[in-house]
Amino acid sequence: MILAIQLFYFGVSDPWLDFVVPSIQFSMELCSEAPHYDNDWPSDITVWVNGLEIGTWTSPGDFGGRRGKLNPAWWPDLSTQFGSLKTWRVDETRSTLDDVEVSTTTLQQLSLLSNSFIGMRIGVKENARFKGGLNLFGKRFGDHEQDMVMRIYYML
């Protein structure tokens, strides 16, 4: 069961809350980066969490040719317009990209509960096959009305 707690209060007899984290997820709209735009401009975009690689997506291009649904009027037509909405997820057994396994990195390996922060990095590796850069869209650009989102799923 996944709970979205809006308010939780503690009394003297129960001064803490125990929870289990079964997965963590990162969702974002992104694409390659080329001069102006180029729909055929692949880029190997990798995500790391706490220094561990969780998976790479090969973006097929830097998308243009039509306006992004959310782009402001002042944004030039010949620039990057939109991306693809991608979701990386790490659970107790594997890492996935859009529900397809991309690595064997697990939640336990990320040491989420023993660190004072969660470090997330997105980029293109120096030794990537396709080094086409990247565009990362917020909720007012592209086609998907969302900023980059990190979700930590938990169970009580």
Order of helices and strands: EEEEEEHEEE
**What shape does the CA trace take?**
globular
> How many E strands?
9
Low-confidence stretches: none
Helix content: under 10%
Through-space gap between termini? 8 Å
Sketch the major β-sheet: 6 strands, antiparallel
Radius of gyration based on Cα positions: 18 Å
Strand content: 35-45%
Report the average pLDDT across residues: 93
Count of separate DSSP helical elements: 1
Structural class call reads mainly beta
Report on this structure:
- The radius of gyration is 18 Å and the shape is globular.
- The protein has a domain at 27-87 and 118-155.
- The longest helix has 4 residues, at 107-110.
- It is an all-beta fold and 156 residues long.
- Strands 1, 4, 5, 6, 8 and 9 form a six-stranded antiparallel beta sheet that branches. It has a three-stranded antiparallel beta sheet with strand order 3-2-7, with no helix packed on it.
- The protein has one helix at 107-110; strands at residues 20-31, 43-49, 52-59, 84-91, 95-97, 100-103, 120-123, 135-137, 149-155.
- The chain contains one helix and nine strands.
Secondary structure layout plus pairing:
Elements: E1 20-31, E2 43-49, E3 52-59, E4 84-91, E5 95-97, E6 100-103, H1 107-110, E7 120-123, E8 135-137, E9 149-155
Antiparallel strand pairs: 1-4, 1-8, 1-9, 2-3, 2-7, 4-5, 5-6
Brief summary:
The chain has about 160 residues and is mainly beta.
Search tags:
156 residues, mainly beta, six-stranded antiparallel sheet, three-stranded antiparallel sheet, 1 helix, 9 strands, 36% strand, globular
